[in-house]
Design a protein that fits this description.
Elements lengths: L15 E6 L4 E8 L2 E9 L1 H5 L6 H23 L8 E7 L3 H18 L3 E5 H7 L12 E6 L4 E6 L5 E6 L5 H11 L6 H9 L23 H16 L6 H27 L3 E5 L6 H14 L2 E3 L11 H12 L16 H4 L3 H6 L3
Bound molecules: 5'-O-[(R)-(carboxyoxy)(hydroxy)phosphoryl]adenosine and zinc ion.
The site of zinc ion has 5 residues, from helix 4.
Length: 360
């Protein structure tokens, strides 16, 4: 009978967690021991998806089905462990593309069942937030976190590993979404963020952009005005038959999109009186953001802990990192676990304790 609860020792100092991620176009598996990364494997269908200008869910699901067994096998092998040594299997159950998520969830359930090990359901965004813990043995809440991914942009006060207060969030588009949409307008290929960054390196931030700080008020953001300003600028130039420097537009957009994130994150950290700032999500792979945030934190006397670029974009080590947090709480899933396409940010940040208090 499947009963991992009976055999699990949550007091284990450094449990070995296998993380599995398949919410979008990356099939990923990683093994961590405590916060140390033992292996990290990713197979991406991004180059296939690029031909279609974005992620085609059916192609992603098929690619996951083709890749998942070998990606997990490689992760276990490269970690230098046997399957029996795994203490828990953590998997992204949402949010993301339903068909894509189901591949990871089904595989993780089968593996956990076969090994009689606990199954841990990980919220993808909580994974992005936990990425800062990877290879950072001393990082401890409280801290202020910038979350900037393709679907979410928010500033959070992490009071503990599981308690978050939303200080501000985007009122419309997420930062990553704005990068992707502006990339399309500039004729840059999918994925938009890294291509804007590359293009921006060749240009100057000389095109006037709307002042983002006045956008949402407080710690909120608004990205749709910035996106529209870029679209209008390009279309007006095209209609007049005037040339414009794509690289200058990319650099100007990048500055406007990033500066507001940096400024508000540091402001929030000062207001909350925390000593540390962390960040997570695909946009945090952006070098201009990383350097600006580092400079602003240094100026404000704040410690900055950033995940390596590889652990900002989708990966499985971050899923294992959040799995470790949940493992210590003994927050295990059972074999009825299924995938969830969308999870609101507030629900994402709910703690096990608060869900239990509500009787869920
Ligand atoms: O966190 P992530 O990999 O997936 C989600 O959970 O959404 O974030 C993907 C987003 C995309 O919008 C992508 O364009 C953006 O992160 N991104 C970047 C960079 N790398 C990825 N944005 C700006 N600069 C980058 N280097
Ligand atoms: Zn992500």
């Amino acid at each position: 009978m499947y009963d991992p609860f009976a055999v699990t020792d949550r007091k284990k100092e450094e449990p070995i967690i296998l993380g599995i991620e398949s919410s979008c176009d990356e099939t990923a598996a990683a093994v961590i021991k405590g916060r140390k990364i033992l292996s990290d494997e990713i197979a991406s269908s991004a180059t296939v998806q690029a031909q279609f200008g974005g992620v085609v869910p059916e192609i992603a699901s098929r690619a996951h089905t083709d890749e998942i067994a070998s990606v997990v096998e490689r992760a276990v092998k490269n970690a230098g462990i046997s399957y029996e040594e795994i203490d828990a299997v953590a998997v992204t159950y949402g949010a993301g593309l339903l068909g894509a998520l189901l591949v990871g969830v089904s595989f993780a359930k089968a593996l956990a069942y076969a090994l009689n090990k606990p199954l841990i359901a990980v919220n993808h965004i909580r994974g992005h937030l936990a990425a800062a813990y990877l290879d950072s043995p001393t990082l401890k809440p409280p801290f202020v976190t910038l979350l900037a991914s393709g679907g979410h942009t928010a500033i959070l006060h992490a009071k503990s590993e599981t308690e978050f207060e939303i200080l501000g969030a985007t009122l419309d588009d997420a930062a990553g979404e704005a990068f992707d949409k502006v990339a399309r307008v500039l004729g840059l290929r999918y994925p938009g963020g890294p291509n804007i960054e590359r293009c921006a390196k060749e240009g100057k931030a000389s095109v006037p952009m709307p002042k983002m700080l006045k956008g949402g008020g407080g710690y909120n953001f608004s990205y749709s005005g910035l996106k529209t300003a870029v679209i209008n600028y390009c279309h007006t130039k095209e209609q007049k038959g005037e040339e414009y420097e794509k690289a200058d537009v990319a650099a100007s957009f990048q500055c406007a999109a990033v500066d507001v994130l940096v400024e508000k994150t540091v402001e929030a950290a000062k207001e909350k009186g925390v000593a540390t700032v962390t960040a997570g999500g695909g946009v945090v792979a952006n070098t201009y953001l990383r350097e600006s945030l580092a400079a602003a934190c240094k100026k404000a006397g704040l410690q900055l802990v950033l995940p390596q670029k590889r652990y900002c974009t989708d990966n499985a080590a971050m899923i294992a990192a959040e799995g470790l947090v949940q493992y210590r709480l003994r927050n295990f899933a059972d074999m009825t676990l299924t995938a969830k396409a969308s999870i609101p940010l507030a629900a994402t940040l709910e703690t096990v304790q608060s869900r239990r208090a509500k009787g869920e």
